[in-house]
Amino acid sequence: NPKMQALNDIMSELGVYDYIENGLSNGNKSPKLIVWSRFVWNIKQIEKFLKDKGIGFLSLFGETSNKARKDIDQRFNEDPDICVFVGQPRSGGMSLDLSGATTQVYFSNDYSQFNREQSSSRLKTMKEEHRVIHTIDLACKGSIDYDIAKALQEKRDIAEMVNRDNWREFLGRR
């Protein structure tokens, strides 16, 4: 699966595998990655991949019990054994503080700009509004994932134009 290979490469670049091999015993800070996926079957696939690699992770999606949801963000941010958070933007996109991560991967998207913005904002606290966050969309040109990522970017561009007080220009008024 090309997406799983891309995720593997991203985790390697972030130093997740080096941390698993060397960092746990040396007291190093664990690299933190968030993987957002629209589909539960993708989340299950990612969970299996992470288990097989021996990588600590937490998941949050529609089927996640209330008990499992409790303190999930605190555990992600503070537990050195947890390197990856896997979640649905719709389920995990609100009221979570996942600011321990600086990189997020969208494994699969939906067309909702609201879900995208809410999930993406989980990586920043109010104090860290200008912190750099790396966002990666896993999408191959010509695929539905590419079309969705392109549509979301167009929605962001329109929102930025309207919010910059260029709404009159946008609407063709002077």
Structural commentary:
The chain contains eight helices and five strands. By secondary structure, it is of the alpha/beta class. The protein has a five-stranded parallel beta sheet with strand order 2-3-1-4-5, sandwiched between helices. The longest helix is centred in the C-terminal third of the chain and has 27 residues, at 144-170. It is globular. The termini are far apart. The relative contact order is 0.14.
Strand order of the largest sheet: 2-3-1-4-5
Output mean pLDDT: 81
Which residues form runs of ≥5 with pLDDT under 50?
A: none
How do the SSEs run, as a string of H and E?
HHEHEHHEHEHEH
What's the total number of strands? 5
What does the radius of gyration come to?
A: 17 Å
The rough form would be described as globular
Q: Helix segment count? A: 8
Indicate the percent of residues in helices. 40-55%
Sheet-strand content, in percent, reads 5-15%
The end-to-end span amounts to 51 Å
Mind describing the biggest β-sheet? 5 strands, parallel
Structural class: alpha/beta
